[in-house]
Amino acid sequence: MSAIALPPPARRYDLDWIRVGAFMLLILYHVGMFYVPWDWHVKSTHQVEALEPVMLLTNPWRLTLLFLISGCATRFMADSFRARGRGNATLAGSRILRLLPPLLFGMFVIVPPQSYYEIVEALRGMGVADPANSMVLANFWTRYATASGNWCDANGCLITPTWNHLWFVAYLLIYSLVLALLLAIPGVRRGLQAVADTAFRGWGLMLWPVAWLVLIRWTLAPLFEINHALIADWYNHALSFAAFLFGYLTARSEPARQTFMRLRWPALIAAVLAWAAWATYAWIYRAEDAAPAEALRMAMRIVYAVDQWAWIAAILGFGARWLNHGGPVLRYLTVGVFPFYIVHQTAIVVAGHHLAGLRLPAGVEASLLIAITAAACWMAYEVARRIGWLGLLLGVRPERPSPLAEPQAANRPPLSA
User: Fold this and answer.
1) What is the rounded CA–CA span in Å between residue 137 and residue 97?
2) What contacts 53, CB < 8 A, 6 or more positions away?
3) What distance separates the 2 farthest-apart alpha carbons in the chain?
4) Is the dihedral angle over the CA atoms 211, 23, 28, 220 positive or is it negative?
């Protein structure tokens, strides 16, 4: 019996909830980036070094999980198109329509304020009294959009236009098109599925992904630092595209769903232990001049891989066990979380920059920052869902009220990305 080919018993609400939760965690993570000592676009005057272990709780796996869930969504889309007699070109076109407009709109409208305030803070750090009125920022948007700005300091240059946090959208678009191309090659779809049917049985769902993560952590990670620039980002591609492909190959597997549920507690225990070990290691060697022994470094790459996959497996297992229910909140957030993602980082950067200047207590500042970000996300979605096809600029496709769409949607999550 195939381990992967069997369809799930009902609509996968659990995948919808997990996707929403992963995006929400990402938004909170970026709020945290305003406070930890790590380099970021803008920084609070309140630096909270003790927040680092908390940030490391999701750092290894949050985006990998999103790519996996996006692969699941792509599988349901591809199967839906195939059932209606449409080919892989339709899948590619659907992905372009949903992902390219928000990517371009984001790069030239949403993201520029992030670069602007990053430069303002850099100039202020260099002693410029009035950064906003300096010649460095004259005609900012034109220079940003035409790549004619010369924004460099001792730490390097800011290259524009940039996609910043929207790198996820760019990579997801490329991965979707690559997958559509692969599926168009005779025999590839069945070949990939056959490999998945063999490998991802029982404990294979835990062991083979960890083995892959260890392999690329040992071989590619030391050579190719993650740069989110698409080019020469080979470790990130090996990680993210593999997760995307895994999601595609296992999305409709009832045996895989049952196995994740059965292994959820062992996976959670392994995840907590691996996180504790990795966070301790990262804390001890957090200084730039710290130099752990090579044997310890190699061992911690195994721990990091276990951390990555065990959390994902635990989330998928507990999600499958407890989150198979819908409702109006899920229907709202399933579509809304993508525009939330598109606008959230700009809201954090702009609000954070201005709040930092008020010298508020840390708790008040953080509370206001979260509230302002949430309000900006909500308003962006409410606008996007009311402007027809222009809503695609924020990743929202106009609703189609025809009841004929319901039977097709019953067995697939309405994931937007």
Assistant:
1) 34
2) 279, 282, 283
3) 71
4) positive
Report how far residue 178's alpha carbon sits from residue 241's, in angstroms, rounded to the nearest whole number. 10
Nearest to 226 by CA among 217, 236, 216: 236
Distance (Å, rounded) from C-alpha 356 to C-alpha 369? 10
pLDDT of residue 413: 44
Peptide bond into 161 cis (omega under 30): yes
Burial label for 9, CB within 10 Å (0-12, 13-18, 19+), is: exposed
CA–CA separation, 219 vs 224, rounded Å? Answer: 9
What is the secondary structure of 235-252 as a DSSP string?
A: HHHHHHHHHHHHHHHHTT
Tell me which amino acid residue 228 is. H
Reported as a single tens digit per residue, the pLDDT across 197-235 is 888 988 999 999 999 999 999 999 999 999 999 999 999
Can you read off the two tokens belonging to residue 158? Answer: 């800011």
Q: Which residue type occupies 269?
A: I
The token pair that represents 24 in the structure block: 């929400």
Burial class (CB in 10 A: 0-12, 13-18, 19+), 156: exposed
Structure tokens at 346: 């700009």
3 state SS for 92-105: HHHHHHHHHHHHHH
Residue-wise pLDDT for 294-324, tens only, equals 999 999 999 999 999 999 999 999 999 999 9
> Is residue 321 within a helix (H) or strand (E), and if so which, with residue range?
helix 294-322
Tokens encoding 367: 């509370």
- Cβ atoms of 148 and 139 within 8 Å: the answer is no
- DSSP secondary structure code for residue 343 in this structure: H
